[in-house]
Design brief:
The structure is a homotetramer. Chain A is 23% helix and 28% strand. By secondary structure, chain A is an alpha/beta fold. Chain A has a domain of 153 residues: 3-Layer(aba) Sandwich (Rossmann fold). In chain A, the strands form 2 sheets. In chain A, strands 2-1-3-4-11-10-9-6-7 form a 9-stranded mixed β-sheet. A two-stranded antiparallel sheet of chain A has the order 5-8. In chain A, helix 4 crosses helix 5. The longest helix of chain A has 14 residues. The first copy, chain A, is globular and about 65 Å long. Chains in contact: A-B, A-C, A-D, B-C, B-D, C-D. At the B-C interface, helix 5, strand 5, strand 10 and strand 12 of B face helix 5, strand 5, strand 10 and strand 12 of C.
Amino acid sequence: MGRSVRVTVWNEYRHERSEHHPACKIYPEGIHGAIAKGLRVESDFEVRTATLDEPEHGLTDEVLANTDVLTWWGHAAHGEVRDEIVAKVHQRVLEGMGLIVLHSGHFAKIFRSLMGTTCDLKWREGNDHERLWVVEPGHPITCGLGEYIDMGPEEMYGERFDIPAPETLVFVSWFSGGEIFRSGCCYTRGRGKIFYFRPGHETYPTYYNDDVRRVITNAVRWANPTNGPVPTFGNTQPLEK
Amino acid sequence: MGRSVRVTVWNEYRHERSEHHPACKIYPEGIHGAIAKGLRVESDFEVRTATLDEPEHGLTDEVLANTDVLTWWGHAAHGEVRDEIVAKVHQRVLEGMGLIVLHSGHFAKIFRSLMGTTCDLKWREGNDHERLWVVEPGHPITCGLGEYIDMGPEEMYGERFDIPAPETLVFVSWFSGGEIFRSGCCYTRGRGKIFYFRPGHETYPTYYNDDVRRVITNAVRWANPTNGPVPTFGNTQPLEK
Amino acid sequence: MGRSVRVTVWNEYRHERSEHHPACKIYPEGIHGAIAKGLRVESDFEVRTATLDEPEHGLTDEVLANTDVLTWWGHAAHGEVRDEIVAKVHQRVLEGMGLIVLHSGHFAKIFRSLMGTTCDLKWREGNDHERLWVVEPGHPITCGLGEYIDMGPEEMYGERFDIPAPETLVFVSWFSGGEIFRSGCCYTRGRGKIFYFRPGHETYPTYYNDDVRRVITNAVRWANPTNGPVPTFGNTQPLEK
Amino acid sequence: MGRSVRVTVWNEYRHERSEHHPACKIYPEGIHGAIAKGLRVESDFEVRTATLDEPEHGLTDEVLANTDVLTWWGHAAHGEVRDEIVAKVHQRVLEGMGLIVLHSGHFAKIFRSLMGTTCDLKWREGNDHERLWVVEPGHPITCGLGEYIDMGPEEMYGERFDIPAPETLVFVSWFSGGEIFRSGCCYTRGRGKIFYFRPGHETYPTYYNDDVRRVITNAVRWANPTNGPVPTFGNTQPLEK
């Protein structure tokens, strides 16, 4: 109430700078630019961006310490994200920073290390049509949506998605080619909340879609840290009776 | 180990006795007959059947007391199942009896009273094609299956399915008409295990399908009561130190 | 944001009107009075109360239609709550109204019908000391708390608590006599959120405790309906491709 | 049915070889010796042991490939377990091998990497008395138990236990000094099942306790791989209609 939500939008930002890649035209200001623009509509959000090729990937200690919720898009260069930065982000999530993992971010080091699984899946580029069905209409991430999001053409992701069962499964995707996918998945790790959201291939204008923006905005609010207790660990005395 | 699993296959058994109904030809021995036949292949299963129009719906105290796992198929006559029988079945589930709820059984009084929700859903008869994707390949109910069950034509059930989030979601269905459905759902209520399994419209030969039979057999084994503690309730003394 | 949260505090209100009952002195304005007072501190809450002996138990259609979150305390007269009122409250929860069930409300018809289990437990009045440990410090219901709430003397509730496994287990109680209890339990049923919170025997001034008030306030915010989709059910057409 | 369960009991095996350490007298054949003895009572278990100071920590490719369920006890030398062996064990769990993590194994590299959290907790050696309450009496791991296990004196572990919320919480411990602990926790990662079980400090004869042995035996049966589908990942063709 009253306090801003400080959001950092992280992006690999390689495809969009590659002249002949379709992403170059679709996202001239980068995928992070499109996501940040959608979030800046909210008057209580303070939004900054950070990208792979900035020093420390744009995720300095100071940036991380002042981030309430981090969104993550990566695809081709997961291996270039330095392990010590991943470790810092991981630590911040456990301390309470929210994390929204988008689309091909399923294979990001940070997501895999938080999940403990391969996070592998089936995929197909081509002629699929996607619909995301809401299976938990009471969840705050669905605020303002209809019964499903009609994405139109998108890259297909199919099960088996090798993740731990979500604490809450919010969306399930239908693809015209015959697959389904758990495409909106909530987790808690430490004091931090994590939301994986499927759509967002770089060759489609997904992050301009109103419903997609609504979901990301809702997810930021949901993942914003709450002021619960900071646990203490280690050797302890018995409580007085 | 060594002890038999005593299964009671319950069926409404109305459509199949109606001369002009397609179910009459598909299931000449009733849906219960087809399901029981699939289960009797297992040498350690003792299988009996019970139907709505038998006295006490075939679910006498003696039958219930000697049932480890009950399977339930109903559709048109949920309202004719007597409340006092439903209460007895409910009580037996809480005591540990397994319950496998099939297809249109989603609207059975026993399922609704165990779930606490309407269990409503979308549906369509016609030209849909169904595939059930395994999303938890480590779950015992998936033993012996491939990555998906290809059902071919079936009635469509679509989300929102108004159930509590399953403790374990094992299958998600894809339908060619554009819908998805949580079609294999595990619950525990009291000491009893419950599995809802979607396929099985009376106008399709679903219960002759090898994979469907495998799932029901696996589910019976999974829901078979384990010999855990019988809780005591009420006023109690402090434990000695 | 901006809109009030309309809270109705329901109470059986019998013990407190019984001259020789300790609750008469501890809660001269009723348990509902104490709970409502704690909630009225929040400037964006609109709080009203309702009690068993009012017409329709104070839960008219108009009151229910204008309630975002209902809190429920009952103990000795669960059986006097009329089934048709319970059915209306149940329906409203499925539609999205939040429900906070307090202490002996575990045996209320509304809680049992939403859970599908007996909701039975062990109990003891006497010399127990209770501590509620936070096991999910990232959950919004723990906002502002320390690592545990020290209740001091309270009635003991012990496991086995015959409930479905909570979707989120927030608190676990320790009792000096040797028992533990899952004392903060989150559920979703339909579009409605439900929180069971253990403390609050009528012979202790529990509802004046700052931490207890904080938990109930947090729970009201958590259970406040979000504006997700209203599902449609029934026969449906295939989606156009 | 009919096939043996191949169990490998892994132990750090340092305390017990230290002449002046109490574990030396309590576990003259090592903690692994005591655990293995308890498991060998089962006629369908094939039990071997492996320890830290053996080549490859006793966990060669051949041993891992022929292990259905691995139990893990470690305490003082977690850091000496080589990362490449941890990676192999991790991979085998995702492929379906069961893993039973015991007591101070909460800090083992393998458990932390599977959980994605610190797995930290509170602890105290001294005069605590532990009782483990069964909260899910329908779970197969509770087969043959009473309502609680009275451990008598044990090391205390207290919340906050920094783990992801268990898929199933089976036991909660009560400690006389004032703490509680989620002491029996079930997970699935990949196709593998994981059970964390709290008791077992090296200065107490915990692994000779009949109930503790029963729990470990039950957990091995529960975690034994089932023959579900082996997922395929990567680029895939649309399914034929």
